[in-house]
Amino acid sequence: MPVYYEWKSLKIQKSIKLTHKSPRFEVSNHPLKANIMTMRESSSVSFMDHLNKWSAGFEEIDPLLKFERMELEEDFQPGSVGKVDDFVTYSKAWSMKRTKILNKYTTGEKLTIVSSFLPGGEKALIRQVSNLNEKVKNRLEQLDDFDEDSVRKTMGLSQQEFVIKINMLNDEIRKAWDSEQRVKAFKICIQCSKMLCDVNVMQFYPSKFILITDILDTFGNLVFQRLKEKSFGNIDIKNAFDVDPKQVPEVAKETCQNWMFKMASIRELLPRLYMELALLKCYIFISKEDVKPALARLTTMIRGIGIPLVSVYLRLYLCHVASKLLGNDSESYFNDNLKEFLDEYHQIFHPMMRKKYETQLLTLDKYLSLYTPAVDWLLYGTLNNTKKCNDTLLAKLLERCSEIENNELLLCCMLNEFDSASIIQNASTILEIIQSSAENMVMLNDTLYSLGEHLCTADNYRLVASEALIQTWWKITNNLKSTVSFLQVLEPWLHFACTHLSTQHVNIILRGTIRYMIKCDKYPDEHYGHFQSVVKRMLKAIPDVEELFLMDAFMPLLELVHTSNARTLLAKTVLSIFFSRYNGVAIEDHIVISSLMRLCCTLHDSINAVTVEDEIKLCSDLINRFVQVISYQNDLEEQLNFYVDCRSSFIKLDAVLVTLVHCVNALAARATGVKSKWLQRACVAYCFITVPSLRCTLAKAHLYLLSGQVALLNNCIGQAEANFKALIGLIPDIPEFIMEDGQKKPTNVKVSGILSDFLSTLLILPDNLDSNCKAYILSGLIKTMDRIHWKKTDSLYYTTMLQILDLLCAMTQENYAYNIDAVLSNDKLYGCDVDFIEYIEKYATSICQDLLVVLKTLGDNKETKKQYNLALELFWRVIRRGDLQERLMFSLAANLWMLSQKLQDSNNKIAKAIMTVLQQDSRPISQQLLKKLEEGVKN
Amino acid sequence: MSVNLTIQLKRASKVYHEGETIAGVVVIDSNSDVRHEGLTLTMEGCVNLQLNTKNVGILDAFSSNIKPLNLINTCIELVPPGKIPTGITEIPFEMPLRARQAVSPGYPGLLETYHGVFVNIMYILKCSMKRSFLNKPLNVTCQFFVQYQQQEPPPLKPVRCEITPSTIRASSSGSSRASMPHFQIYAEIDTTVCPLDKPITGKIRVDECSVPIKSIELQLVRVETCTVLFSRDATEIQNIQIGEGDVCRSRDIPLYMVLPRLFTCPTTTTVNFKIEFELNIAVIFEDDYLVTENFPILLLRSR
């Protein structure tokens, strides 16, 4: 069997060629155009999703701050709880309130628990407030010592331990109750409620209140359940008011009465009140009519509590109990208690209280914030049903506010609880009140913040007074002493200004902000979190996000931040919000462009050797977005200049460089006409220079190819050749695997894709006539093929070889299958020169030879399937592209078919298809071959 | 063999008025047949007068307990001698609660149940099972409470008073304190004639006070007089706090006290003893300095 087959390509006659011509028809628009539009739309969404994937970790600098923010957001939900007339509403609102209090009011101070029912702890001599004479008292104390349940005091408990102890007491109550020691349960309860007298660690008081009232609720329920069982057995009673006292048996009534007498004889006021409230619903068993007068009486009795913090929380509990029991009927008790609270309002600022909180190192605002949950709740309940007279109530309260001193607590709580609509209506009045007492208001920032938040919810119409409001607000805010509060207040008000006022106004505020920040001589770095949220809020609020950059104060505002770290974060925030909100197609304004450029530069400059990969990705994405969105419309030169600037600015980011190359290529493709010849060259040069600085070889290869193609398109043959040469030189260097998203990925498929793309381009690439070599680039590629790390038996290798064979055959044609109008391809260049054809066929012969070698190797390696496929593929090439008139080609075809038949049945789909084509071929030589093949098979 | 004897009254509250019938059952729970010599039920009511320990030294000659004053003593036979079968046996009974007819001098009639320090008025039902010669009789007692019939509500008798340094009597303030703080306190009790079933109400208002207040308290005191022993003792029944801490000035703080059962009864005067009640309002200042105001009150069984 002769080993050497000389390849002869079939010259397709023109007439035949015509039949293969693809159908052409006129189209009205570009088939890909619509796709591009949808791409844009979806990209803006996916872009952010994409960003969010890794940005979450970088958005906030401080997780604690984030937590705080979250809470603030939660806090601000005026009337967000659906005000449905139901018990459920109250209990839901209460449980929300409960968790909020527990989360908010915590302490690191040491706590003290006094109880006789907990193990451990030193024996304490509790000095009871009594007018017993000293001698009797001492004797009693001595007696107490022998008593099994002597009072023990455990000191120095951390908050955690305290909570555990309280829970232990809670369990103890149940245990005692279940073991028939009901009086013991009662005593534990009394001791617990006594703890609420103690305001020693004030900042924990609200949480302590919640913990202890839970215990009281437990106890109240236990008593109620027992009385219910005594009266009606195990019937499920949802509402306490379903109990009919007339049907309650005498025994249960007697038991209930006993509890009441026991409760009424508790010596101390506070435990007595708490216990009566806990047992309040048991009055139902005696008489329904007793409940309401009892609540009214308790409301007034609370006046006896001298410590305002204790009394307001007691009122809170009263209202809680009332709302649980009476639902919406409880509203009047809320109202009454609110009134009582207001009448005692000045007590909060009593010098004695001041002494107390000052010794605990609390500031006035911290101290006042302890009251807010309680006052909020009172207001909440009052407002829940009085919707109709909300306005009058607000007016009344505001009047009250303007009358009393230290109105901030009330004002703040009002702003927390009233709905936005009424607040907005009275905004100017409220602001006036604030202004008049702004100087010594400690909760000023909270108040202004809440007011601002209310205003932000206003509908998007222009409030008549918004200008005046902002002016007054600025007067107050500008005098704020603490920068943190300034920034905190600024946030919602800036939002308000953005949505309700013109850009000029916003700009004036921004200028004022800059002045303020400079004046206080503190860079916002310390308050970076607040500063960032101000900027964020503004970016989110402003109707047209592009307008921000047109304000002359915006960029200087951003520059206020000094440390590079904070600047980077800020730039990142601004850019990501900007791009997520920006929905235009192209940015043309120079001011915006330069501002964005500046931000992008900040972002880029922050990247260094230790920057993590995700961070780099994020930055690259943002900058890419920037690069893509900038447009100088028809000023192509300016556009290119911009890209040049970008390259120098973002040199560290490969992803950006890739985008730039793409952009420049697009620009080069856009630049048509003779005048822009130089621009095209400049573009190609740009790409050619830019690509080598990339790190990833694969990306480089791809870009070389693309740039070469664009150069070719623009008839810059030399540049195209240079690109292709570079590409060929690069191919062996492409590593077998690259890291992508932290995973090792093989490059084979991509490389073969690039190569086949490259090969189809090579068809139209004219030869460099200066060199002696014909098909210069192609020959370079063929030589390089050996140096690629692929194994010879790898299907990628021989497929590429087959493709080269295809190309070589195509190159021998008289007219190439396709061409670029301006470019003279080799068909025109050589005009079927015999030398050229010969040269090409020599290559084809050698490649065919190589393939035969591969075929043999495959056979040796017993890779039958691959061998079969290759044989068929080659057979196909021979019969389609080879000149079968040549004896050698004819026998090669026959041999290949034999080989394939030997390896596998001809029932294979591809083999069948090939045979069908061969049968339909009208050429005599084909028929001849067919005959021979059939004979061969028979043999 | 174990026998369990209990008395169960029909009325859960165990409160009866004169003229009513006390109804209930005696429950005998036994795990074997019980032979007995008769089951009797006795109703007893008596006043116990006790000596104040302070006076013991002086009046050593007397026994520490004066002979109880008998108010009622009736006895009925529930079951004649015989045998009670195994298991739970319930023997119903009814006894009228009526004062003695033949009145001896000084007999006060049926008084309300009262538990005091020196005077105790108690009513018990005693069930006794006499058994054979060798066995001790089985006894079980059960207390019940006697209350007067409800009277028509009396007219209100409100009292008002102002407490200022000048109104303080020298005796109560003592001379220990050189300079008294300046204060002006107004107190009011809605009525000094108080129905026992209703709370004592009123209000107190601290108009001015130059020192912080620690506590405001309301003290219920009984005054027990024993004419025979020439003793008169005031002791505290209960003391409840009305104000805690330095209360808000110029605000009415309600006074509210539920009268405890058993430890109170209508104000009683008999030949041998007297039970009276008083109310003290005490204002305690930060330094434990105490100002009190005393109000005698009349307790009544009325609506």
Quick structural overview:
The complex is a heterodimer of chains A (939) and B (303). Chain A has 939 residues and is mainly α.
Q: Topology, pairings included?
A:
The complex is a heterodimer of chains A (939) and B (303).
Chain A: H1 14-20, H2 33-59, H3 63-75, H4 87-104, E1 111-115, E2 122-123, H5 134-146, E3 152-157, H6 159-178, H7 182-195, H8 205-232, H9 250-264, H10 269-278, H11 291-301, H12 308-326, H13 331-343, H14 351-359, H15 364-369, H16 372-385, H17 390-403, H18 408-417, H19 420-425, H20 427-436, H21 444-456, H22 466-478, H23 483-500, H24 503-519, H25 528-541, H26 545-550, H27 554-559, H28 564-581, H29 590-605, H30 613-629, H31 636-649, H32 654-670, H33 677-690, H34 697-713, H35 717-730, E4 737-740, E5 743-746, H36 748-762, H37 776-785, H38 795-811, H39 826-830, H40 834-860, H41 864-881, H42 887-903, H43 909-920, H44 924-938
Chain B: E1 3-9, E2 15-17, E3 21-30, E4 34-36, E5 39-49, E6 69-79, E7 82-84, E8 87-96, E9 114-115, E10 119-129, E11 138-147, E12 159-163, H1 170-173, E13 183-189, E14 193-195, E15 200-209, E16 213-226, E17 231-244, E18 252-257, E19 268-269, E20 273-285, E21 290-300
Parallel strand pairs in B: 2-11, 14-21
Antiparallel strand pairs in B: 1-3, 3-8, 4-7, 5-6, 5-10, 9-10, 10-11, 12-13, 13-15, 15-18, 16-17, 16-20, 19-20, 20-21
Characterize the structure shown.
- The complex is a heterodimer of chains A (939) and B (303).
- Chain A is built from 44 helices and five strands.
- Chain A has 939 residues and is an all-alpha fold.
- In chain A, the strands form two sheets. Chain A has a three-stranded antiparallel β-sheet with strand order 1-3-2. Chain A has a two-stranded antiparallel ribbon with strand order 4-5.
- Chain B is elongated and about 80 Å long.
- By secondary structure, chain B is mostly beta strands.
- In chain B, strands 2, 5, 6, 9, 10 and 11 form a six-stranded mixed β-sheet that branches.
- At the A-B interface, α9, α10 and α11 of A face β16, β17 and β18 of B.
